[in-house]
Amino acid sequence: MFTGIVQALGSIRASEARGDDVRLTVATGGLPMDDVALGDSIAVNGVCLTAVELGADSFSADVSRETMERSSLGGLSQGSRVNLEKALSLNTPLGGHLVSGHVDGLGEVLESRRDGRSWRFLFQAPDRLARYIAEKGSICIDGTSLTVNGVDGARFHVNIVPHTMDATIMGEYRPGRQVNLEVDLIARYLERLMLGDGAAVSGESPGITREFLARHGFRAD
Predict the structure, then answer these.
(1) Are 142 and 180 in contact (CB under 8 A)?
(2) All structural domains of the chain
């Protein structure tokens, strides 16, 4: 688990194909590595990776084909900057929100503009994720915990303060860029829980629809 508070900016040192998978070596920048052991989890742009090799200022992790297809890691090359966060411990301040490091889908940067001293970003999420994104709710973008300021269909916008622009890769965002999205854990599990016994039935998980609510006694009036 993570908090979505980026601890350091790293960079991709090497990307080595191994069959259908890839081994990434990540230069850790200012991320302290003295308490990291083999098998520990480190979030790279919001993707939970397992450290399989450790260096003084780097670690290597194997990235499966599933992860490459679900996230933006497949588009990284040598020198690409990445957001890094070590897994939280029980004494870690929860400054962001609970983040699993499991990417739900790829979003796209649509627009960025100045808003006072901050920046306002507009993103397009996959349609299937729109129901989990709520105004003033939490979302994780490339490993950064953010507050959703407004929602319009599958589009949503956030405000980024100068510190976050400097401490994360968001300063590199331009329209058309793909980003890793992880929706709020509670929303995801709440939807599944509401399916009840139907969750065990194949084809019975279209999400919470009006038809589903009506079958379970919900009345709009």
Answers:
(1) yes
(2) 8-86 (2.40.30.20), 105-183 (2.40.30.20), 186-215 (no CATH)
